Amino acid sequence: MPEYFNLSFWQVAIATSLILISCAISLALQLGLGKRLLVASIRTVVQLLLVGLILEWVFTPGREWYIVLSIIALMTLIAGISSVSRTERRYKGIWSDSVISMWASSWLVGAVALMAVIQVQQRGHPWYDPQYSIPLLGMILGNTLNGISLGLDRFGDELATKREQVETLLALGATRWEAARAAIQTAVRTGMIPTINTMMVVGIVSLPGMMTGQIIAGVDPVLAVRYQIVIFYLLTAVTALATIGGTLLLVRRYFTAAHQLKMG
User: Fold this and answer.
1) For residue 262, is it within any domain?
2) What CA–CA distance (Å, rounded) separates 102 from 81?
3) Residues 32 and 14 grouped into a single domain
4) Maximum Cα–Cα distance across the chain
5) What three-state secondary structure class fits 254?
6) How far is residue 65's CA from residue 71's CA, in Å, rounded to a whole number?
7) How far apart are CA 239 and CA 142, in angstroms?
8) For residues 264 and 261, what is the distance between their CA atoms, to the nearest angstrom?
9) Which of 23, 50, 246, 247 lies at a 20 to 30 A Cα distance from 62?
10) pTM of the model
11) 136-180 tens-digit pLDDT
């Protein structure tokens, strides 16, 4: 039977104090990151403690489906907004585009994970069981956020730096989709690179957080590996869908229906 270790607040505090090493390096090299590190550390503690209390309440048996769905919807909305806050190049409608692509891709892949992969209903759990739906969607949203923000940023940069080339293609009779094809490909490729790079070295250079946590908690390593493989493939799929979806919405923002570029 696996043995579980309960971490006290003092043990967590010891680990938390290690952030001072990063602050000391920042101070010694005059990086100017000390304040940001401390703020980020405090936010991490506050946010995770808050989430822990909320999840403890949500995980109580008998919670209605609309409560779980409301929490998931709020998580998705915040993720969509956060992906825009990381983007330097803004345009009218970027917030709605980000939320729409985030919502459609993450909920689609999340539904596949719950219904077809984990099959929660066949295990006797409701489809909205927070034990499965909230952690899964949380991991999916985190990865999707990075993909969308990188893709949106890169697409705008590509059109700005290659504007003459794009306008030449349009002048020669190309549609907006044909003229933006290279920029779309570059944006999607950029959004997916972090996930692909992680997959290339997983198990050799690094052990993923979820798998490590399961092993420390006493789960059979082979079972933990299976779960991690599933998660990686889900994250790859959702990143591709979200990045391509967000980029295609961008085409409609940057080009008119008459196939003209309208960047400022």
Assistant:
1) no
2) 10
3) yes
4) 71
5) helix
6) 10
7) 10
8) 9
9) 50
10) 0.78
11) 888 888 888 888 888 888 888 888 888 899 889 999 989 989 998
Rounded to an integer, what distance in angstroms lies between the CA atom of residue 118 and that of residue 166? Answer: 45
DSSP calls for 155-214: HHHHHHHTHHHHHHHHHTT--HHHHTHHHHHHHHHHHHHHHHHHHHHBTTTB--HHHHHH
CA-CA-CA-CA dihedral for 40, 44, 47, 53, to nearest 10? -160
Between helix 19-28 and helix 34-58 the angle, nearest 10°, is 160
Q: Residue 226's closest CA among 206, 242, 211? A: 211
State the Cα–Cα distance between residues 81 and 90, nearest whole angstrom.
Answer: 12
In three-state form (DSSP H/G/I as H, E/B as E, the rest C), the secondary structure along 12-36 is HHHHHCCHHHHHHHHHHCCCCCHHH
Q: Can you give the length of the chain in residues? A: 264
Rounded to whole angstroms, what are the CA distances from 209 to 100, 133, 204, 206, 227? 28, 18, 14, 9, 12
Residue 48: which domain range? 1-58
What are the helix and strand counts (H, E) for the chain?
11, 0
Angle at 231 between CA 225 and CA 234, to 5 degrees: 145
β-sheet bridge partners, residue 206: 202
Given the structure tokens 């490909």, which residue do they identify?
185
Bridge partners of 187?
none
Report the domain count for the chain.
Answer: 2
- Which pair of tokens denotes residue 59? 């995980």
Q: pLDDT per residue over 125-148, tens digit each? A: 888 888 888 888 888 888 888 888
- Are residue 123 and residue 220 in the same domain, yes or no? yes
Mean pLDDT of 172-196: 89
CA distance 181 to 221: 43
- Is residue 32 located within the same domain as residue 75? no
